[in-house]
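Lecture notes, continued. The same structure-token format from the folding unit now serves as the input rather than the output. Read the line below as a description of shape only.
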């Protein structure tokens, strides 16, 4: 009888030990789940800062342009703090000279002249300094903006576009219609190579690649 009691006590202790281990395991899992959400949010915020940092406010106009079967235009850009931009944006009285519209993603945003101090990715959809205006024959109208979840992420939905989608640019009381013909990515190296057909008027949009902190995406539209 004594031996039987001893065996039952041992089984009880073993069971309690196992239950304690299982309880400790679920406690650790709960803690990990609890802290993982803010860590993930922090990671996303850091990545967003990295996205913003790849753009700069000045365009290097001395880069080479090569025209063969395609036109290659190299751009270099820099940024300021987005917090300052948000505050300044509330105070700014923009004088837009035109507007880009992409119905599929419900994008409609004005742009200022290249000479304006608000022609900057920290404030607006921005015209590259080496860009042609939409009324230039066979020109390339180049616009840049941030993507992601930031206040100034005007191109955050471009990743939803597909070949054949259309865009419209209004400028100087005229409307120019374009169709998307090419989408490609490039590494964030501080420069952007634009490949287009120089015999067709072009609209080029540049932004950070969706859910990718190391690349940027170039969208080439040709005039319809």
């Amino acid at each position: 009888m004594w031996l039987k009691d001893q065996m039952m006590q041992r089984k009880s202790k073993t069971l309690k030990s196992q239950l304690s281990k299982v309880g400790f395991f679920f406690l650790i899992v709960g803690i990990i789940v609890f802290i993982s959400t803010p860590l993930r949010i922090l990671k996303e915020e850091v990545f967003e800062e990295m996205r913003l940092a790849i753009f700069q406010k000045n365009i290097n106009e001395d880069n080479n342009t090569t025209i063969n079967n395609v036109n290659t235009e190299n751009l270099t850009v820099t940024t300021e703090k987005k917090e300052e931009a948000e505050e300044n944006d509330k105070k700014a009285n923009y004088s837009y000279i035109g507007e880009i519209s992409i119905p599929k993603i419900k994008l409609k945003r004005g742009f200022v002249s290249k000479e304006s101090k608000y022609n900057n990715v920290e404030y607006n959809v921005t015209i590259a300094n080496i860009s042609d205006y939409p009324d230039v024959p066979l020109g390339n109208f180049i616009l840049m903006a941030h993507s992601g979840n930031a206040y100034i992420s005007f191109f955050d939905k471009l990743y939803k576009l597909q070949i054949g989608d259309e865009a419209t640019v209004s400028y100087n009381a005229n409307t120019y219609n374009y169709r998307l013909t090419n989408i490609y990515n490039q590494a964030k190296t501080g420069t952007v190579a634009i490949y287009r057909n120089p015999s067709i008027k072009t609209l080029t949009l540049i932004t950070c690649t969706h859910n990718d902190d190391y690349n940027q995406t170039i969208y080439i539209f040709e005039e319809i």
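Point for the exam: The first strand starts at residue 65 and ends at 67.
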